[in-house]
Design goal:
Blueprint: E1 2-7, E2 11-16, E3 30-35, E4 38-42, H1 50-57, E5 66-70, H2 76-79, H3 82-88, E6 94-98, E7 118-121, E8 126-130, E9 133-139, E10 149-153, E11 158-160, E12 180-181, H4 185-199, H5 203-213, E13 220-222, E14 228-231, H6 233-244
Parallel strand pairs: 4-5, 5-6, 6-7, 11-13, 12-14
Antiparallel strand pairs: 1-2, 2-3, 3-4, 8-9, 9-10, 10-11, 13-14
Helix pairs in contact: 5-6
């Protein structure tokens, strides 16, 4: 159930992309990063997957060695399972989320889970130490959430891009086979376009993001949704260039989209 996408013996990155075997509501990927025996979870997923996810994670690391949870934003498919993890770790886990959502995420938890167990990420992002490995939380606001962060792992040089890069292939399509890299970028675009045009706010934000990420040394971009990721400098740069030129969200709206319904 877990696909290892990086392993140098000390540092490991694992993706869980199909915990419920295609029986879930919205397909979402969960990410485990391990360094020197300590774990971090990024975008842990909703309540339905928590028990099987916990079981699968146990194959790689004792769950109590996971000390950090990072939520890219506030959506339930991203982090509604945080209540589960706080119970099973006796609140010994720290959860990072945008300052905008620190007051909202506790609504997913039992009433006795105080807000101080959640740490707000400032709008400009921050750097974390994962038992000796540096993790950078970089701003990705309005892609699609107004308070949104992607995770850049400096050891593996993987950018975990949250909703950006989401692909939605037809049900039962070839992308249901296994989690793997994009082989044909032009073919893959048609699986990304619909989501990005509707859920990403504007081309202006896309250009700002592309300029920022071009400063990073990225070997892989791995989205939160879909069974494909972008591997290698050429494919990474093609994706960044595609995002930079994207027309989406408010760019595509006009007065005809704001009409009082007649029935």
């Amino acid at each position: 159930m877990g696909t290892v996408i990086f392993d140098n013996g000390v540092h490991k990155c694992i993706v869980f992309d199909d915990i419920l075997g295609g029986r879930g509501d919205i397909q979402a990927n969960q990410f485990l990063i391990m360094h020197n025996g300590e774990g971090l979870l990024y975008d842990i997923g909703g309540v339905k997957i928590m028990q099987p996810l916990y079981k699968e994670i146990s194959k790689f690391i004792p769950p109590r060695r996971i000390k950090t949870i990072i939520l890219s934003h506030q959506d339930p498919d991203t982090g509604a399972g945080v209540n589960y993890w706080m119970q099973f770790t006796n609140l010994e886990i720290r959860t990072f989320v945008s300052n905008l959502w620190v007051r909202f995420i506790p609504h997913l938890c039992r009433s006795n889970f105080a807000k101080e167990f959640f740490i707000g990420i400032p709008d400009k992002g921050m750097r974390l130490n994962l038992n000796g490995a540096e993790i950078i939380l970089i701003p990705a606001h309005f892609l699609h959430s107004p308070g949104n962060f992607q995770l850049y792992d400096t050891t593996s040089k993987i950018l975990f891009s949250g909703d950006l890069g989401t692909s939605i292939p037809p049900a039962g399509g070839i992308y249901r086979e296994k989690f793997s890299e994009v082989a044909d970028f032009n073919e893959h675009v048609k699986y990304m376009e619909g989501f990005h045009k509707r859920y990403v706010t504007s081309g202006k934000i896309c250009k700002l993001w592309a300029r920022m990420t071009s400063e990073l040394d990225i070997e892989m971009i791995v989205p939160q949704h879909g069974h494909r990721y972008f591997k290698g400098k050429e494919m990474v740069n093609r994706f960044i260039d595609w995002v930079s030129a994207l027309q989406c969200g408010i760019d595509l709206l006009d007065r005809n989209d704001f009409v009082i319904p007649k029935e």
